[in-house]
Amino acid sequence: MTKDYALNYIVSDMARKNHLENMIYIHDLDNYAVGSHNCLTIPFDKLLAEGFNTRQCDIRPANSVNTAFQLVAVIFQLQSLCQFGGVSASHIDWTMVPYVRKSFTKHMRDGMLYCEGCSEYKANRFIKWLEHESEDKVLHFDNEEFKSLHPEAWSYAMKMTERETYQAVEAMYHNLNTLQSRSGNQLPFTSVNYGTCTLPEGRMVTKALLEVSIKGLGKLHKTSIFPCGIFQCMKGVNREPGDPNYDLYKLALRSTAQRLYPNYANVDWTGNAGYDRNNPATYFSTMGCRTANGMDINGLGQLKDGRGNICPVTIIMPTLAMIAEELTDNFTEEYNLEHPDNNVEIFMKLLDTKIHEAKDMLLERFEWICSQSPDSAKFMYENGLMAGYVPEEGIRSALKHGTLVIGQLGLAETLQILIGCDHTETRGMELAKRIEALFNKRCGEFKQQYKLNFGVYYTPAENLCYTAMKEFKQQYGEIKNVSDKEYFTNSMHVPVWRSMSPFTKIDIESQLTGYSNAGCITYVELESGIKNNLTALEALVNYAMDKDIPYFAINVPNDTCLSCGYCDEFNDRCPECGSEEIQQLRRVTGYLTGNYKTAFNKGKQAEVEDRVKHA
Ligand SMILES: [Zn+2]
User: How far, in Å, is the centroid of ligand 1 from the Cα of 573?
Assistant: First the structure.
């Protein structure tokens, strides 16, 4: 209903026509009319330090790691009511450092009182003195004076802080897997990035996040679906033996092999150039699905916190390729194309026209969103969750830092239509690069011209891959290697049914990821046996990072018996207890989805079944 309303009364004729003719898809039309935006990386450093207001009450700043993690879950929840897409934390390990220290100080006082029998007076005075002496007026784990003068209290405080951190993380996982978002039937799409903090307090947080992920949730230790964990690989920090966080990278790999999470973000990605090494809020981080914030044309640089995607559209390229084919045989003036040469040239011209129209569709929606009252997302604006908001200037002052992204669907099928092969062949790759270069060039020009963050987006298309194909088939029927299945291939991915080694897949996709600056993901399918070969897994993730892949994920089959908790790949029947109640977890976009046979649409189910393992 709200979809039809937006289509009939809000968007322009051009936008409606493109949407209905399966050429440019307007995402989340349901939410168009209310004028909400897509997603946000939440500035947790600020919110936890300053507290925030909700409709019911003021929330004070966090005073312990336990409170801080509970507030993270609350903030994720409240923000996801202000928008229609995901929420993320860009560097949760760094964010938590002050709160781990606050907890540590409390436990240290208890340690002095109850392990060492100090008087309250003495303990308080000593702590005050240490805090006064320390540079940032807070106690650190490695305070030598405390360690040497009160060794028993120190050991006690370390143990208790570790326990509290672990329990706080566990509670956050539990909350994020049970909270409901606005629609009432879906959990908020939450992601947490971590892994680069080398301070002992931050390392403790990362370790807890990974250990809870490995352990799983509840009685049966089920793989948790939220938050999407993203480990940030960074040279000199966690990549090599001898790096301070190399042990945490290894722990991350163990978790991935068993639980699919974490995924891997590449802090050294060339596309994130210009970031500030001293500010982890500028390190490359991503939404679980893949949406990422690039360089801000309006002054915030590579800052991720307080920014997000405002709205996406996706160009359904196979439709354009079919039109180009028809025009080659039967040229008409309809699309204002001059000098048609051959089908590829016609396609490139048509694509260029459609990229411009996609830009206009995004501008339309951007203006619509900017015309809303700040009260429509009170929590977000009142508490400064979106960076740059100046009340006197209106909400545009904040929205202009977000991204407007032009997505794409079905590069592989497009190439098949145009030249009879996809980008797994040299000829296909040449044309693929030409296509992606055009997207990239135009988005760069639009960014300068409109002073808005236009970007190239390799769309997740979880539903669109199916609905767009259904419409395509109605119009063009079944074409070999194009529409002889239920789905279009995601963005510029190699088709899931192509057999190749995971290294080859990375080689191919890494030639195209550099054209995207608003988000992309590369994943490979592995056998569940990978958990017995973590060295191979490490080599693979390293290979992807070294090939300059910005965001990398591993798909490992994850079937859990709901009777006994046994977890492996076994499809319909548990080999341990014989139960047929099985949860089959698979990845759709970047996030995991519980039982794909009920949670996925027909196209995505077919895609999952066609996926070949990369070995
Ligand atoms: Zn079982």
Answer: 8
